[in-house]
Amino acid sequence: MAIRLIVGLGNPGPEYEQTRHNAGFWLVDNLANSLPGCRLQRESRFNALAGKCHIGGKEVWLLEPQTYMNRSGQSVGGLARFFKIAPDEILVVHDELDLPPGSVKMKKGGSAAGHNGLKDISAALGTQDYWRLRIGIGHPRTLNLQQGVADFVLHRPRREEQDLIEECIEKALRIIPLMVDGKTTEATQQLHSA
Known about the structure:
Pept_tRNA_hydro_CS; Rossmann fold; single chain; Pept_tRNA_hydro; seven-stranded mixed sheet; Peptidyl-tRNA hydrolase
C-alpha cells in the first residue's frame, strides 16, 4: 500500500519545540519545507496542523497533532476517517528511546513500547498495523544520564546528539518518495543500509 498520510509526533508550543519528543515534528517540518506549495495550517476539525501536498505526483497529507503527545490519536483517527485513509496507508514518525541518536528504523505494526503517542493512535485506529519511522534519541541510561525518561524526552538533545538526529532525518527524507509510491520494502532496505 502507498502512504497517503505522514504524521509527525510531538508536543505543541514553543517550550517543547526543541525537545527530543518532537523529532517527528522536525521531520514533517523539513518535508513540508522541501515540497513546493506545501504549507501546514491549523485544521481545527482535526486539532492539528495539516497540509495536502504532492510527492512524486501523488497527493499526501502531512499532519502534526496539536493535542499533546498522549492524545495524538484524536487527530490521526479524525483525519484518516474523514479522508478514508486505511491504517496501512499511514506513516507515523516518532522519537525512539530504544535506538541511539544516529539510528533510524522503519517497521510496520508492533507494540507501542511505552510510547504514549503510539498507544493513543493504535486505540484511535483500532489496530497497530500502521507504518512507523523511528528516529533514535537514545535512552538516558545508555547515555549515562541520571534523568528520568519523561524529563529526558522533554529536554533538548546535546549538540552532538542533535547533529546525529538531523542526519537521520535527512536519510529518512530520501526514502519518503518510495513509501508514497508503495515501494515499502525498497524504502526499508535503503533506510536500513544507509
